[in-house]
Specification:
Length: 599
C-alpha cells in the first residue's frame, strides 16, 4: 500500500479511562472482528490483564478503513497500558507511531497519567487527537474537561471529539480524525531495510517473535536479516501482521508494522530498540533506539524448592525478552539459598512479574521486601551503588550515604488535601507546590525519598482518598541522608533477607512495629523464640514468641509433686537442646510484612 494511505497511531490515557473499550469499538466498526469473535477488552489477551482489568502489555492490530474521501486506509493501532509502572511500554509503542489519540474521561477529567503520557507523546513529536470518552455518564462535564486539558496540558481542545466507547458514539469521527490529522509515515522503500524492534516474545513452537515498525526498505519471506547490535544472520521463515489474528504475508514495506519469525531459539539475540536490516546490502546507521531505563525498585526472588533455580533463570530470561525494563542478577541468601536480585520499575510491576512467573512458568517463589539503590561514599573516596541491604559495608568505613528522591504529582479532589499532606510529611516529603486547577481538582507536588514511597505510599494514598486520587512520579536526584541498616534477628541469628535500610529518625519505631508484626506471622515452636530488631550491635526492639507447651504432667494425678517436677525438668532440658539445633521457618508473609508496617 502507498505510504500516503498508512496511519500509525497509539491510544494513550490514564488507567481506566476506556482505552481498551475504545480499541474494541475500532475493531468492531472497521469490521476486523465478526460478532462471533467479539469479546470485551479483546486486545488484553493475557489472563492476568483480563483478571485485573488493566492493560500490561502493548498490543498492535492492523485495521482497514474506508474513509469518507473514498480511499481505503491501512490503520495500525497500538494499544498501550495506563499505569505508571508500565510507562516504558508506552514510550516503546509511541516510538513506532506518528500520532496518538489522547483519551480523557469526561467525568473524571485530566489525571496524573494523562499528563505523563502526553509528555511522552510530545517528546516523540506526535500529533495528538484529544477524545473525551464516557460522555453518556450523568456526571460527564465535557466543557469543564476541555478547559482542564487546555489549562493543565496546554493543548487546544476546542475540536476534541465527544465519544462513548460503551455506546459506540463518535467512533466514526475518531477514525476520520486519524485519517485527516495523523501524518502518514515518511518511508523510503528504495533504501536498505531498517526496522525498529519495539516488542518481542518467546513462542515455544516458533522461537522468538519480533514485532517491528519498518522505517526504510522492505522485507520479504526468505530474506536473510541481521540485528545491528549482534553478529548472527537469520532467514525470515514467516512474516505478517495482526489483523487482529495473525495473518501471514509475503512482504512488509516501509511504514508498516508487523511481526517477523526466524526460528531464533536464543532469547539473548533479540533486544528491544535494536534495528533489523538485511544481511546483504545492510544499512549503515541504526535507528535511534530507546532510552535504557533503569529499574527503581529491587527485590530478591528465590525458589521455594532450590532445584527450581535453573527454571527460574530461564523464566526470567524469557520475561526480559518481552519486558526489557526488567533486570536480574544472581544472589545468595543465608536464609533462602540461591535466587535472583530483580530490578523493577515499581511495586505493581514487581507484583505482575511475580504473578507471571508463578502462573506462566509454574514456579513457587518467595519474594523479599523491595528496596531501592543507595549510593555509599567510603573514606577512601570510592563510590558504590548498593541494591541489597545485606551488602552494606561496615558503618565505620562509610563517609556518607545518598538516597534517590522522586517528584510525586498527586491529582486529588480538595476534601482530601489535609490527609495527603499529612501522609507526605510522614514520609519525609518536601512540598514543592499546590495548584487548584478547578474547584474540584487540586494538583499537589512533593519531593519524596523513593525508599519511603516503595513501602506502602500508593496503598495508603488510595485508602485515605477513597480511590479518588491519582499519582505519577519521576526520579529527580540523589541527596545525602542519615541512613542506618536495620537487622531482624530470630533467636540471635540475623535473617539477611529481612534487613532493610531506614532513616535514623524512624529506625526505632520501624523496628518495634516490625518485630510486633513478625510475632504475629511466625508460627510458634516447641521452644521460646526471641525476635529482635538491631542497628549494628544495639538491640532497639524485642518480642518473645511463647513456646507451645505439651502438658507432660497430664498422666500424673495426685501423688508426690516431685514426680511432676521431674517430668517438667526433663521437658525443659529437651526444649533447651531443641533450641540450640532448631531452625525457625519464616513464612513468605513475613518477608512482605515490612511493606505493611505502619510508622
Amino acid at each position: 500500500m502507498d505510504p500516503k494511505h498508512i496511519r500509525n497511531f497509539s491510544i494513550i490515557a490514564h488507567i481506566d479511562h476506556g482505552k481498551s473499550t475504545l480499541a474494541d469499538c475500532l475493531l468492531s466498526y472497521t469490521g476486523s472482528l465478526s460478532d462471533r469473535e467479539k469479546k470485551a477488552q479483546f486486545l488484553d489477551n493475557m489472563e492476568l490483564e483480563r483478571e485485573r482489568g488493566i492493560t500490561i502489555k502493548a498490543q498492535t492490530v492492523r485495521l482497514m478503513y474506508n474513509a469518507d474521501d473514498g480511499i481505503t486506509y491501512q490503520i495500525n493501532l497500538i494499544d498501550t497500558p495506563g499505569h505508571v509502572d508500565f510507562s516504558y511500554e508506552v514510550s516503546r509503542s509511541l516510538a513506532a507511531c506518528e500520532g496518538a489519540i489522547l483519551v480523557v474521561d469526561a467525568a473524571q477529567g485530566v489525571e496524573a497519567q494523562t499528563l505523563a503520557n502526553v509528555y511522552l507523546a510530545l517528546e516523540n513529536s506526535l500529533e495528538i487527537v484529544p477524545v473525551l470518552n464516557k460522555i453518556d455518564l450523568p456526571s460527564a462535564d465535557p466543557d469543564g474537561v476541555k478547559k482542564q486539558i487546555e489549562d493543565a496540558i496546554g493543548l487546544d481542545a476546542s475540536d476534541a471529539i465527544l465519544a462513548s466507547a460503551k455506546e459506540m458514539i463518535g467512533i466514526k469521527d475518531i477514525l476520520e480524525a486519524i485519517v485527516k490529522k495523523v501524518p502518514p509515515p515518511s518511508a523510503d522503500r528504495g533504501l536498505p531495510l531498517r526496522a525498529l524492534i519495539f516488542d518481542s516474545w518467546f513462542d515455544a513452537y516458533q522461537g522468538v517473535v519480533v514485532l517491528c515498525r519498518l522505517v526504510d526498505g522492505r522485507i520479504t519471506k526468505g530474506d536473510r536479516i541481521k540485528f545491528m547490535s549482534g553478529h548472527s544472520d537469520y532467514e525470515v521463515l514467516k512474516l505478517g501482521v495482526f489483523a487482529p489474528f495473525p495473518q501471514e504475508l509475503e512482504t512488509l514495506e516501509a511504514g508498516e508494522v508487523g511481526f517477523i519469525i526466524c526460528g531464533i531459539k536464543d532469547i539473548r539475540e533479540v533486544k528491544v530498540g535494536d534495528t533489523v536490516t538485511t544481511y546483504h546490502k545492510a544499512a549503515v546507521e541504526p535507528l535511534p533506539g530507546f532510552r535504557r531505563i533503569k529499574p527503581m525498585v529491587f527485590s530478591g526472588i528465590f525458589p521455594v524448592v532450590s532445584a527450581d533455580f535453573e527454571n527460574l533463570k530461564d523464566a526470567l530470561g524469557k520475561l526480559i525478552l518481552n519486558d526489557s525494563s526488567l533486570s536480574f542478577e544472581t544472589e545468595k541468601s543465608a536464609a533462602l539459598g540461591f535466587g535472583f536480585r530483580v530490578g523493577f520499575l515499581g511495586l505493581l510491576h514487581m507484583e505482575i512479574v511475580q504473578e507471571r512467573l508463578e502462573r506462566e512458568f509454574g514456579l513457587n517463589l518467595i519474594t523479599t521486601a523491595p528496596t531501592v539503590v543507595y549510593r555509599i561514599y567510603t573514606f577512601d573516596e570510592k563510590m558504590m551503588e548498593m541494591e541489597n541491604p545485606a551488602n552494606m559495608p561496615d558503618p565505620t568505613k562509610i563517609l556518607k550515604m545518598e538516597e534517590p528522591f522522586v517528584k510525586v504529582t498527586v491529582h486529588t479532589p480538595p476534601e482530601y488535601i489535609g490527609a495527603i499532606l499529612k501522609l507526605c510529611e510522614d514520609k519525609r516529603g518536601l512540598q514543592q507546590k499546590m495548584d487548584y486547577i478547578t474547584d474540584r481538582k487540586v494538583i499537589i507536588e512533593y519531593k519524596l525519598p523513593l525508599n519511603e514511597m516503595v513501602m506502602d505510599f500508593y496503598d495508603r494514598l488510595k485508602s485515605i482518598t477513597k480511590g479518588y486520587a491519582s499519582m505519577e512520579y519521576e526520579l529527580t536526584d540523589w541527596q545525602e541522608s542519615d541512613l542506618v541498616k536495620l537487622d531482624v534477628l530470630i533467636n540471635g541469628e540475623p535473617v539477611d533477607a529481612l534487613s532493610l535500610i531506614v532513616h535514623r529518625s524512624k529506625s526505632v519505631t520501624r523496628g518495634r512495629a516490625l518485630v510486633e508484626k513478625m510475632r504475629e506471622l511466625i508460627p510458634r515452636q516447641q521452644y521460646q523464640v526471641a525476635i529482635q530488631a538491631a542497628i549494628g550491635s544495639k538491640i532497639v526492639a524485642r518480642e518473645t514468641l511463647g513456646a507451645l507447651r505439651k502438658d507432660v504432667t497430664a498422666k500424673c494425678y495426685g501423688g508426690d509433686i516431685s514426680r511432676k517436677r521431674k517430668l517438667l525438668e526433663r521437658q525443659k532440658e529437651g526444649k533447651k537442646r531443641m533450641k540450640q539445633i532448631g531452625t525457625v521457618d519464616v513464612p513468605q508473609e513475613a518477608f512482605l510484612a515490612i511493606l505493611k508496617v505502619e510508622d
